[in-house]
Request: fold
Amino acid sequence: MNKIFKRAFLPGLLATSLVGASFVPAKPASADEYILQDLGIGAGAGVVTGAVRGRGSVVNNAVKGAAAGAAVNAVHGTRRQYQNRQKRNVVQDVGVGAAAGAVTGTILRGNTRHVLGDAVDGAAAGGAINVLTNGKRQ
Reply:
C-alpha cells in the first residue's frame, strides 16, 4: 500500500471501528435450548410452502425457513418473564419469521424480485413454530 492510502483511510477506519465497538447492545438476543427444534420446524415449513408456491429450490426454501426459525427462537429468548417465555405470541412469531424470510431470500438470490413470497415463506415458518411449540416448553 502506498503512503497516501495509509494516511487517508486508515485513521478513519480505526475511528469507525472504535466507535462501532462502543454501540454493542446491552442485552443481546440469545437462543435457548430449543434452537435445533425451531430450525427443523422452520426448515420443514419452508420446504412445504416453497413446494406449494412452486418457487425456489428445496435447499433455498429450507435455508429461508431455518433462518426464520432461528430468528423466532432468538427473539423468543429475549423475553424476561417466565410466563412470556412459555406462551408464545403468534403475531410476533409470524412477523419475525416474515422479516427473516424476506431478508434471507434477498441475500440468497441477490435481488428483491420475490421478496413478498419470501416473507410468506418465513411467516409460515414462524406460524408453524408457534402452533407446534406454544405452551409445550418449560
Q: What stands out?
A: Residues 29-133 form one domain. Confidence is low (pLDDT under 50) at residues 18-24. The radius of gyration is 19 Å. Residues 31 and 53 are 30 Å apart (CA to CA).
